[in-house]
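thread: overnight batch results

M.L. [08:02]
morning all. the overnight job finished for the chain we discussed friday. pasting input first so we're all looking at the same thing
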Amino acid sequence: MALELTRSREFSEQVLNWIHGKGKVLIVAHDNPDPDSLAAAMALKHLLLQKTGQDATITYGGIIGRGENQVMARELEIAAIHFDQLELEQFKVVCMVDTQPGTGNNSFPPDRTVHLVIDHHPPRDVCHTCRWIDVRENYGASATILLEYLLAQEVSFGTKLATMLFYAIKSETQDLGRDWIKPDRDAYLHLLPLVNNRILQKITRPKLPRRYIQSYNRAIENSLLYHDLLVFNLYEIDNPDIVAEMADFLLRVEGVKVVLGMGHYQEQEILSLRTDQPDVFAGEIIRRVIQDLGTAGGHHMTAGGQIRQLKGDPSIQKELEETLTRRLLDILSLPVVAGEALIP
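M.L. [08:03]
and the structure it wrote out:
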């Protein structure tokens, strides 16, 4: 990681010098944070504490919903405060990790200043208003970038932070099976001997509530096939992460190359797009599918979006599903056909 560490050393050195002595620091993770967002936030918090003496506050909106993420937050003692509990005026420096201003997937007010952005998603134009930007869209995980900062600044860290960062890269790239480059692999291998395997086992094999199992049943029952495209609708959900999880699961269906999933959560339609085709850029496709309806983004094989949908009426959701499906078929150059039930 020599070349990448040089870049990370220069950037992190400048940022740390700028932040030093400026007062309270806020680190914003994206709403309903995943392991990558949480681990990157904790790594930045540790870096700031060790190098500047400032104890930053981590915040997020929504919920930590997925079973694995709940166990991770509990077992690894991730210190984060819900956005509703904050008084924003007290913070003099605002950082975003694994998200950016204007993406629609974080709760930070769009009219407030963000000073630092560290992310691995395609950059948004609004980022140019931020003082410091390190957006590496070719990286598989934001955790990889933060590990480079720690190594470049020669900051030691314990097994819990190592386990967080490792699991973030592991889950974000599906064990280096998708959307990764050499720095992600280097980070994965560097962290592997430092991991607490007992805790990692707990995270990857959590006990699951019955309603979680019901989600599999609902996703399968509501899946429709259009050529090699599968579309499913979970309708009302109590955990926004479940849409992406079901999309990952249904991509394993034989003959399916692209999956679009959706579900209604607290006045929003949550969307997830998955593909195993290297020539299909999921992030760009979902932005075209949603167009003026909401916000979206992602990588080559994984993407997500949100559409403001105040009513969870099933007929309205079904109409939205049909609209998005037609758009997606057109983008993928597939003929419009009637959907075939996955399970007749």
